[in-house]
Design brief:
This protein is α+β, with helices and mostly antiparallel strands and about 200 residues long. The protein has helices spanning about 20, 30-35, 65-70, 95-105, 125-135, 145-150, 155-170, and strands at about 75-85, 115-120, 175-180, 185-195. Strand 3 and strand 4 (about 185-195) form a beta hairpin. The termini are far apart. Pfam families: Thiolase_C, Thiolase_N.
Length: about 200
C-alpha cells in the first residue's frame, strides 16, 4: 500500500464540515424501503454512524472464589444482567428496556449509577436512550462513544467494559451500567460495581 500512512487514524477527516455532513446520503435508504416505510426520515448517514475499526480486547472474568485462590484483586464485579428482544426492524431501541430490566433486577435507580456506556453504533441510539430514560447526560459515554472511538465488531463489548471500569476507577465512581444493541433486535445490559 504505497503512499498510505499506516500510523494515521483513518477515521479522522479534517475537511469535514457541517455542510459536508448535511450532504451525506442516508445509509440504509432504498426506494423499496422508502416505499415500505414512508414515515421514516432516513437520518442515519455515515456522518452519525460509528466507523468500523480494527480492534481486539479481552477481559479476565472469574468467580470471587477463584480470584481469592489465585491471589488476585478484582477491579469490579458484575451485579446484574439483562437480555431483551425488541422489534428487529426498529432494533436500535432494545437498549431502553434492557436498561430498565437490569436496574429493576439490581434494585437500583438511575440515581445510583455513576457512569453509563451506551454503545453508539449510531448517534440515534444513545440519544433515544437518553430521551427515554431521563438519565443524566453528563454520565453518558464520558470518554466518548463509538463514533469517536470506533466500533470494532466482536470487540466492542469488552471495550465498553474496560472503558467503564477505567472511568469509574479514575473518578471514584462505584456503579456503572453498560448496554448494547445486537443484531436481530436483541440488546443486553449489565451493571458493574467496584469494591
Amino acid at each position: 500500500m504505497a503512499g498510505v500512512d499506516r500510523l494515521a487514524d483513518e477515521t479522522v477527516r479534517p475537511a469535514t464540515s457541517v455542510d459536508s455532513l448535511a450532504g451525506l446520503n442516508p445509509a440504509f435508504r432504498t426506494d423499496a424501503l422508502a416505499a415500505r416505510f414512508p414515515d421514516l426520515e432516513w437520518r442515519i448517514t455515515p456522518g452519525n454512524s460509528s466507523p468500523l475499526t480494527d480492534g481486539a480486547s479481552a477481559a479476565l472474568i472469574m468467580s470471587a472464589d477463584a480470584a481469592e485462590e489465585l491471589g488476585l484483586t478484582p477491579r469490579a464485579r458484575f451485579r446484574a444482567f439483562s437480555v431483551v428482544g425488541s422489534d428487529p426492524l426498529m432494533m436500535l431501541t432494545g437498549v431502553i428496556p434492557a436498561t430498565a430490566r437490569v436496574l429493576e433486577r439490581a434494585g437500583l435507580t438511575h440515581d445510583d449509577v455513576d457512569a453509563y456506556e451506551v454503545n453508539e453504533a449510531f448517534a440515534s441510539v444513545p440519544l433515544a436512550w437518553l430521551a427515554e430514560t431521563g438519565a443524566d447526560p453528563a454520565k453518558l459515554n464520558p470518554r466518548g462513544g463509538a463514533i469517536a472511538l470506533g466500533h470494532a465488531l466482536g470487540s466492542s463489548g469488552t471495550r465498553l467494559l474496560t472503558t467503564l471500569v477505567n472511568h469509574l476507577e479514575a473518578t471514584g465512581g462505584r456503579i456503572g451500567l453498560q448496554t448494547m444493541c445486537e443484531g436481530g433486535g436483541m440488546a443486553n445490559a449489565y451493571l458493574i460495581e467496584r469494591p
